[in-house]
Design a protein that fits this description.
The chain is mainly beta. The protein has a domain at 46-136: Immunoglobulin-like (Sandwich). Helix content is 12%, strand content 52%. It contains 1 helix and 8 strands; from the N terminus they run H-E-E-E-E-E-E-E-E. Strands 4-1-6-7 form a 4-stranded antiparallel beta sheet, with no helix packed on it. Strands 3-2-5-8 form a 4-stranded antiparallel beta sheet, with no helix packed on it. The radius of gyration is 35 Å and the shape is rod-shaped. It starts with a helix and ends with a strand.
């Protein structure tokens, strides 16, 4: 090998060795502490139940929450509906009205426990029971 050729090989070797660290990726693993990571708990699901009872045969019902908005339906009494939530607090609302004379009761239950109630016993034009409040779980 000629001296020029040796010099070329030596230069290429130095360049290759100098570039090698730039092409290498080093991974640093965290130390093993012998413990497993704490799992994140699943969110708690709460049930809001709306109920309308009474002696009136038919009612217009508006119910909902700050999470879902409101829904209105006209239906026979008794009536119930439920929704689920994982929020830590929630404003809930239930209004039942009827053009029929008699008693009408609006009830809200949270996780099976009584939360709010309104009753109206009316002989006249419109019979309304309205219950609402903020639930803090």
């Amino acid at each position: 090998m000629t001296p020029t050729r040796r010099r070329q090989v030596a230069i290429l070797a130095v360049l290759a060795l100098g570039l090698a660290p730039a092409c290498t990726k080093t991974y640093v693993l965290p130390p093993d502490t012998g413990t497993t990571p704490t799992p994140v708990p699943a969110p708690v699901v709460h049930t809001i139940e709306y109920r309308v009872l009474g002696t009136v045969p038919l009612a217009e019902i508006t119910y909902g929450s700050a999470q879902e908005g409101t829904t209105t339906t006209e239906t026979a009494v008794p009536w119930s509906a439920s929704v689920k939530t994982t929020r830590p607090s929630l404003f809930v609302y239930l209004k039942a009205s009827s053009a029929f004379n008699g008693t009408i009761t609006a009830q809200i239950f949270v996780d099976g426990e009584f939360f709010r109630e309104a009753t109206n016993n009316f002989l006249g034009s419109t019979n309304v029971a309205d219950a609402s409040g903020t639930v803090v779980f």
